[in-house]
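Q: I have 136 residues here and want to know how they pack in 3D. Can you give me a structure?
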Amino acid sequence: MLKKLALKIFWLFWGKEFLKYFAIGVSSFVLDLGTLFVFKEYGHLSPVLAVILNQLLIISFVFVLNKYWVFRSGQFAGREAGRFLLVAGGNYLFAVVWMAAFNHCLGFNYLLVRLANVVLAVSWNFLFYKHFVYAK
């Protein structure tokens, strides 16, 4: 009973937005790992430099789709962009340090390191986007 009530409350407040956010997350994840792989394997970049470059693409992709499709924000893009960049900057720094620590220092596979990093970031980004970046 409690589980069913919690699901109804979740769907009422976040359901459609979260599903769209999740769809963007899945597509950006595929794009993220794809560009990371291409930059590393075909561009012959180090995993740390590859993640630095691919995150610039992913950040732009995620901002535009979340602003206009998920949260349907009509607010001044500059204010939201500033807030988004603050969150993205934290994620970006976390991603680079994460890659350096787990791939460069500890020798874990760079794709698995990135996968773990993305799973962690997804867990907090929806709340940051909804209540801080695109808050009405």
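Q: Anything worth noting?
A: The mean pLDDT is 86. Residues 16-133 form one domain.
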